[in-house]
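Re: Re: ligand-bound prediction request (bumping)

Still looking for help on this. To restate: I need the protein modeled with 3-isopropylmalic acid bound, output as structure tokens. Inputs repeated here so nobody has to scroll up.
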Amino acid sequence: MAKHKIGWLPGDGIGIEVLAAAKVVLDKLGLDAEYVEGDIGWECWRSEGDAFPIRTIVLLKSVDAAMFGAITSKPVKAAEAELAPELQGRGLVYRSPIVRMRQLFDLYVCLRPCKAYAGNPLNFKEGIELMVFRENTEDLYAGVEFGPVPDELAEVLNRLSKNFAPFAKLPGDEYALSCKLNSRAGSERIARAAFEFAARSHRKKVTVVHKANVVRATDGLFLESAKEVAKEFPDIPVDDANIDAMCMWLLKNPFNYDVLVAPNLYGDVISDLCAQMVGGLGFGCSGNIGKELAVFEPTHGSAPKYAGQNKVNPIATILAAKMMLDWLGETTMAARLEEAVAAVIAEGRVRTYDMGGSSTTTQMAEAIAAEL
Ligand code: IPM
Ligand code: MG
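Reply:
Sorry for the wait, this slipped through. Here it is.
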């Protein structure tokens, strides 16, 4: 029996190519693993009306970790139009599988390392190294949304909040409502994950990102919870910033920051900004981490326009595989893989189109494998 059982979910679009590239390096490393492939993505939606079928959920319950490629998602009407004819008109609603997976398996930490590898021509500045801890199950991603808004709900809101008055006048189908839901426990556990990491890795500071000056209830609770957790870590300096100012300061003084912790949506935004500072989509890797399961993925999407061209940069996915090795306890392999990636970037001989070169996805994977 293999030492590790790994769920393998390529998805669609370039997800298939980048996961194949990750497999090249994992095989070269000789990871003792059984890979079980699962169906997920657009094709499942079209033919079954569910992009994340039950059999894939069952599969994920049986693995130690999983790698996820990417999947296409489309707005409500476009998604419905692509359903198989017999599935149309049944009220099926497309909901992002990765968001569902994060909630279903309580993968509450979204960990996004953003490191400028020396010599990457796409680095905003050399030496940037940020670690984003994004809360991954709550906030505006909770999925509690109404459009149209039922009268019953409008009546309660009108009774309980005077600020609701301008909306109370509108018919339910003339507005929509998405609930931002943040719990104390949910806020504390992501903050704790960030501080524990900072303590363990001797990082210089944790910055709490929020908008508590305006979004007082939810972001107020997030900030308060994080500050409470900070008291458990007296040796780790802590500060906080509003999400808007944070974007500005990050660009101006990236070296003033280190570990960032944020509620789900701000974390989504800030992690794209941080990824762009270290080379963009080709370099953004991500771990969705819970107590029992962790799923690793590139931050980028399925990029349908590049699908099947063997063109995109697989480094984000290969770095996600490195994160998976760490999670599996294969820290020596993880370190070797990161060194190999760093060496290929520094050498600059093999570069995909985003880096200004013409190497293929496969050539990049093989170049990294050759360094191992
Ligand atoms: C991400 C992505 C997802 C998100 C999308 C694909 C649902 O942007 O992982 O950052 O919003 O979380
Ligand atoms: Mg995102």
